[in-house]
Amino acid sequence: MGKTQQMLEQEPIGKLLLKYSVPAIIGMMVNALYNVVDRMFIGNIPGVGPLAITGVGVTMPIVTIILAFSMLIGIGATTNISIKLGQGKKEEAQELIGNSISLSVVIGIILTIIGIVFGNSILKLFGASEGSLYYAKAYINIILLGTVFNIMAFSLNSTIRGDGNPKLAAIIMVVGCLTNIVLDALLIFVFKMGIQGAAIATVVSQIVTALWGLLYYLKGKSNLEFKKSSLKLNKKHVKTIFAIGCSPFAMQIATSLVQVISNNALKVYGGDLAIGAMATIASIILIFLMPIFGITQGAQPIVGFNYGCKQYDRAKKAFNISLIAATIILSLGTIAIQFFPEVLVSMFNKDPKLMDIAINGLKKYSYMLPIVSVSIVGSNYVQSVGKAKTAMILSLLRQVILLVPMIMVLPKFLGLDGVWIAQPVSDFISFIITGMVIIIEFKSYEKLVDCKEDDIEDSYEKYCG
């Protein structure tokens, strides 16, 4: 048994979560800051800030689609690597790394071509007006040129964590973020490149992150050996990556769909400034949600390995600790939003009209934020134990199945406030359903534990060696 496998099997769950989640949280926060920092700088461009941030708001669905494919590959590969290691299949775990790199390149190129060729039509469909189209196009065309590096950076960072080196993954992300911040300031305000400067800064920082991740494997410093032959796409591996990665992928695609529907509703009931306000609100909420995604990413290899080894109590404990930590973070975030909304919104833009709309929206949008922890941690747990279909449905509940009808119906009665309130209503119903699924999942373990050893399909030795 390897050192990493032994640690996942025997080390206290709380200690393991700290070891894996803290670097993942840093990585997710840094990943969020790529977009958040861009919006902060763009929103404060003299003279055009409000309209420029509206333009960025229109591009949010496209950026989310790119993130969806990043998570499809990165989380799909990393979760499978953890499960394969738990099963003692090191060779297959190594092959998954090469396949994830190839998928990043292929999918990245396809998205770039589609985005640039059909850019105008897509942006108008996503809510761009004649006033905001210029800024939206100037920003997203450059972002699209860096799609391959964007996806690869996320994917490699995820697999590096799964390879047992979460600290390096965090360092790479921090360096990339700092690069983005410094370049943002230089290109926007020193070289007067405006919104295009923000996009260039983002792409350059993603290139740095992706190349560093590649060097980690090419120089042979990784625990899992990288072989060039693993770059050839294997149908079996691609299917397993997509099977596990489809849940977070669906969640992000759903988020993109909601953003499109939301942008169009905002345009009808509040105009361009309402779209800019939503871009601000989404950025603030993202700051509080990213630590939760970091916790769940850190928990994935722990849950996946111990579930594979049939150590269900350890898998459940990882869930419980993750849920408590996530709830505390989101509760603190809600307090900050409800009591200090002006401070948070003013970081992105100080235009009085935009601030009024954003503050009102932010306070209503975050009503149910603390209980969102159950939906996120719960769906991630189900995903981590390999139940991809159930996880995907749970993910879609909060972002599509419930939210889309709310956005389409509530504004007809409440106007712009209906758009803001749609999310907390969806969050509450999703909380109840996800909680029930987790309770049923845990109860099923009692039957598995009571089973005779001969009735268990795979023995402990097969999983843990």
Automatic annotation (TrEMBL):
NCBIfam families: matE. GO terms for biological process: response to antibiotic. It is found in: Cell membrane. Keywords: Antibiotic resistance, Cell membrane, Membrane, Transmembrane, Transmembrane helix, Transport. This is Multidrug export protein MepA. It holds the Pfam family MatE. It is a multi-pass membrane protein. It comes from the Bacteria. Its main location: membrane. Belongs to the multi antimicrobial extrusion (MATE) (TC 2.A.66.1) family. MepA subfamily. The chain crosses the membrane at residues 20-37, 49-75, 96-118, 138-156, 168-191, 197-218, 238-261, 273-297, 318-340, 365-382, 394-414, 420-440. One of its GO terms (cellular component) is plasma membrane. GO terms for molecular function: antiporter activity; xenobiotic transmembrane transporter activity.
